[in-house]
Amino acid sequence: MYTQRPAEFTYHRPTSLDEAIGLLAKGGDTRPLAGGHSLLPMMKLRLAEPAALVDIGRIPGLDGIEVEGDELRIGALATHASVAASELVREKCRVLAATAEGIGDRQVRNRGTIGGSLAHADPGADYPTVVTALGATVVVRGADGEREVLADDFFTGVFTTALRQGELVTAVRVRGVESAAYVKHRHPASGYAVAGVAVVLRPEAARIVVGGVTGTPVRATKAEQAMEIGIAPVDEAAIAAVAEKVPAALSGALSDTYASGEYRVHLAEVLAKRAMKAALEAA
Ligand code: FAD
């Protein structure tokens, strides 16, 4: 039944990470709440009925963006708007700032967080595709301490991740890069990616990752192998030859009322060409 109201729940507002982890460790259906832009709509539709929410939104120190060695460390509570506006992100990893800028609308960007987006693992979300292409590391913390999970291993299915019960995403670490781009076909109502392709070109290797088409971001490994880093941006034929290999990675494409699986796979090939060209031009 559609209702505008969530089912009853207990609300906790911890002021430290340890307190939040302690509350989550008590078990039951207790969930963290960050920006609330995915969880609250689901609760209103009664697609989620957690017994308790642990609002991590006021825990100090979780929204920082800083340089750590040759990486950027972005706190889980950094909003999409703050990632988009960050001088550090714009300078060291422009593709991530541009991705944040293209999420949803202004309200969503002002409230939604990078940690919430990664933990929610919506197949149409933008960050999962881009952080996978960047070879990022997701930092998580639970009652047993901190661990790091490669983005490659983090997204395990539709709305499913490698997070264990009671664990929080605390940060994501990415190595900066110039030669990179993310191009998506926006759903006209929400901005979510009907299909999106991220291309990251580093001297040692290329990464081409498709999101929105299957349950998790997928690396198009055959296309990656075919990608020669030295391709000139104008070499349309070479770019098309690489993009042709993208659909081979996409089995089990998602279909919904907006787009069939077949259409999504077609979009992935088209968007891969655009993303490759943009990544080469960004160098
Ligand atoms: P919440 O809604 O608070 O939480 C989402 C889930 O993650 C919950 O299960 C929660 O328990 C869990 N969670 C939250 N934080 C953590 C954490 N640190 N550790 C562990 N678990 C955690 N997204 C896009 O990528 N592209 C779009 O174009 C886009 N358009 C949107 C348009 C609309 C109208 C709306 C409402 C949303 C849109 N979104 C889009 C989603 C938006 O980016 C969400 O904000 C984001 O997916 C979830 O972040 P949040 O901070 O709001 O998380």
- Low confidence ranges: none
If helices are DSSP runs of H or I spanning 4 or more residues, what is the number of helices?
Answer: 12
Mean pLDDT: 95
Bound molecules: flavin-adenine dinucleotide
The amount of beta strand, in percent, is: 25-35%
Return the string of H and E elements. Answer: EHEHEEEHHHHHHEEHEEEEEEEHHH
Radius of gyration (CA) equals 19 Å
Count of DSSP strands: 14
For the report, how would you describe the main beta sheet?
Answer: 5 strands, antiparallel
Strand order of the largest sheet: 4-5-10-6-7
Terminus-to-terminus distance: 52 Å
Give the overall shape, derived from the CA principal axes.
globular
Q: Would you kindly provide a written description of the structure presented here, covering whatever features stand out?
A:
By secondary structure, this protein is of the alpha+beta class. 34% of the residues lie in helices and 25% in strands. It is built from twelve helices and 14 strands. The strands form four sheets. It has a five-stranded antiparallel sheet. A four-stranded antiparallel sheet has the order 11-12-13-14. It has a three-stranded parallel sheet with strand order 1-3-2, covered by helices on one side. Strand 8 and strand 9 (160-161) form a beta hairpin. Helix 11 packs across helix 12. It is globular, with a radius of gyration of 19 Å. The model has no long low-confidence stretch (mean pLDDT 95). Bound molecules: flavin-adenine dinucleotide (FAD). Flavin-adenine dinucleotide binds at residues 31-39, 41, 76, 103-104, 108, 111-113, 115-117, 119-120, 122, 125-127, 163, 168-169, 190-192. The site of flavin-adenine dinucleotide has 32 residues, from strand 2, helix 2, helix 6, helix 7 and strand 10.
